[in-house]
Specification:
The complex is a heterodimer of chains A (about 180) and B (about 350). Chain A has about 180 residues and is an all-alpha fold. In chain A, about 75% of the residues lie in helices and about 0% in strands. Chain A has a domain of about 100 residues: Up-down Bundle (Four Helix Bundle (Hemerythrin (Met), subunit A)). In chain A, helix 1 packs antiparallel against helix 2 and helix 2 packs antiparallel against helix 3. The longest helix of chain A is centred in the last third of the chain and has 31 residues. Chain A is globular, with a radius of gyration of 21 Å. The N and C termini of chain A lie far apart (about 70 Å). Chain B has about 350 residues and is mostly helical. Chain B has one domain. Chain B is built from 13 helices and 2 strands; from the N terminus they run ααααββααααααααα. Chain B has a two-stranded antiparallel sheet. The longest helix of chain B is centred in the N-terminal third of the chain and has 33 residues. Classes of the chains: A mainly alpha (about 180), B mainly alpha (about 350). Chains A and B meet through helix 1, helix 2 and helix 3 of A and helix 1, helix 5 and helix 6 of B.
């Protein structure tokens, strides 16, 4: 019973993930592309849930689907383009190129998994109750992956400071003119 | 068996059959809807009294049937929408707003749990290890209902209203999330059931986390776009904000989701800071409701008392006052939790 449910949800989430991914690059109107990207991030969150990573799923929705995409929609709605049809029809050479490159990367991933993973994929791993919990993730961040964690935080800090500096500069220019 | 993800194990894990959770979800949703209906009446009555008016008093004794009259009026209205609106998004966004508002209440605990007729009945619909994050995550999805509604209406007032909603909600969400960090640090859990249990053992977190409590109330008022932070729907400037072009029950759904967000936020505040359903003498749900009604009254009181901020004041207050205070509170709490 449980496993059938898992399969049904997995297939639905995976199809919606691929479908919304294709929609992101096929829509002509950027507003609809952004909406499709939200759908894509949400279906990814469902896949995370199925992998027992509840914290990552919630963070995915909260940070990416919630905060980041609101900024995207904000900018797109301000800059207009509302009257554009959602889809102009017919693929463009850019989309065909994107499809070819995407297919190449997918084949590469499949080949890499097939040659390297071996039998590890067919055996289910025992998942403990604490797997994917906030406490466990926090422990991993501050022990095994401390260096990567600290480097990421510094990069984010630099980005935040950079954003403030860029914003101040444009404001000063605006006042001068 | 081990391949079944945690999320499917969450229900029924505490010895409760799955169908009880569904029955409880049905009851809780309907109770929230009734609370919403009578919150609108209470708000109009209390505001009326505070402004030396009577408030609605025609429908039924003391105007008690007013919410039902409003509902019938909204449902019977013509489903009008502007010719230039984008149909799918225009129709979809009120549903999104109402759905996200209703489902966040599922993780809020309102009682100790009982054993009735041999069945274990928990005092919550769902207990998740990430319940607090879930509430914020679903709330952040709910913002899209407001943005899409305003954008798809093809009206400058609606668009400006949804832009304001967007900017305000994103700004204050940061302070709101940081203000509860102190509670999470003290209780060492993101599960609301655990947080309530921790407060029963120690003390209500409103005392040690008073700064967090005040920041939470202020940021929460802004998150639910209520006075004095009701810039997104400031009548004098924007007609009605993002739902300017909505009428009938579609407007009703937007209005409902705003009120239900307020109820959920108050319930979350009760859970995080005021000891949840714990209290002497009365059973748990009664205490939960008493605390909930007290906070709702507080929000109505603030609405009638404080005038609306200017937009730049709103942004400055959010980013330069609330956010640093909330951050400082989280840092100090972290140091104290580790040191003590």
């Amino acid at each position: 019973m449980g496993n059938v449910l898992v399969w049904v949800i997995w297939v639905a989430a995976a199809l919606s993930c691929i479908g919304s991914g294709i929609a992101v690059i096929s829509f002509t109107n950027p507003f609809y592309s952004a909406l499709a990207l939200i759908g894509n991030l949400a279906s990814l969150a469902v896949l995370f849930l199925l992998a027992s990573a509840e914290f990552v799923a919630a963070a995915q929705i909260l940070v990416y689907a919630g905060a980041v995409m609101v900024m995207f929609l904000f900018v797109i709605a301000y800059l207009g383009g509302r009257a554009d049809a959602p889809w102009a029809g017919g693929p463009r050479w850019l989309q065909i190129g994107a499809f070819v490159v995407g297919a190449a990367i997918m084949i590469e991933v499949i080949v890499a998994l097939a040659t390297k993973a071996g039998g590890g994929l067919s055996n289910g791993t025992e998942i403990t109750r604490s797997f994917g919990s906030p406490a466990e993730i926090g422990r991993l961040f501050l022990t095994d992956h401390l260096l990567a964690f600290e480097i990421t935080s510094i990069v984010l800090l630099i980005a935040a400071v950079g954003g403030v500096v860029l914003g101040m500069k444009t404001q000063a220019e605006g006042e001068a003119s | 068996m081990s391949l079944v993800p945690h999320v499917l194990l969450s229900s029924g894990v505490n010895g409760e059959p799955w169908w009880i959770a569904i029955v409880k979800a049905f009851i809780v949703i309907n109770l929230v809807l009734v609370t919403f209906a009578y919150l609108t009446l209470a708000e109009r009555k209390i505001m009326g009294r505070m402004q030396l008016r009577y408030g609605p008093n025609r429908a039924g004794p003391f105007g008690l049937l007013q919410p039902i009259a409003d509902l019938v009026k909204l449902i019977r209205k013509e489903s009008f929408f502007p010719a230039a609106a984008i149909d799918v998004l225009y129709i979809f966004s009120p549903f999104l707003a109402a759905f996200t508002a209703l489902c966040t209440f599922s993780v809020i605990p309102w009682g100790p749990g009982w054993e009735i007729g041999g069945y274990q009945i928990n005092g919550y619909v769902a207990d998740l290890p990430i319940a607090l994050l879930l509430i914020f995550a679903i709330g952040s999805i709910g913002i899209y209902g407001f943005i899409l509604g305003g954008w798809s209406s093809d009206s400058k007032y609606a668009l400006l209203g949804s832009m304001r909603t967007c900017a305000q909600l994103v700004s204050y969400e940061v302070a709101l999330a940081l203000s509860v960090l102190g509670v999470v640090l003290m209780s060492r859990s993101l599960s609301l059931v655990d947080i309530v249990a921790a407060q029963a053992n120690e003390t209500w977190y409103v005392l040690p986390q008073f700064v967090g409590f005040v920041v939470f109330l202020m940021a929460g008022t802004a998150e639910t776009a209520r006075a004095p932070f009701d810039l997104p729907e400031a009548e004098q400037e924007l007609v009605a904000g993002y739902h300017t072009e909505y009428g009938g029950m579609r407007f009703g759904l937007f209005s409902m989701s705003e009120y239900i967000n307020l109820i959920t936020l108050s319930a979350l505040c009760v859970t995080l800071f005021l000891g949840g359903w714990h209290g002497p003498l009365f059973p748990g749900p009664i205490w939960f409701l008493l605390k909930l009604f007290f906070l709702l009254f507080l929000f109505i009181w603030v609405r009638t008392t404080v005038p609306r901020l200017r937009y730049d004041q709103l942004m400055r207050f959010g980013w330069k006052v609330l956010l640093p205070v909330a951050t400082l509170n989280a840092v100090v709490t972290a140091i104290l939790v580790v040191a003590l």
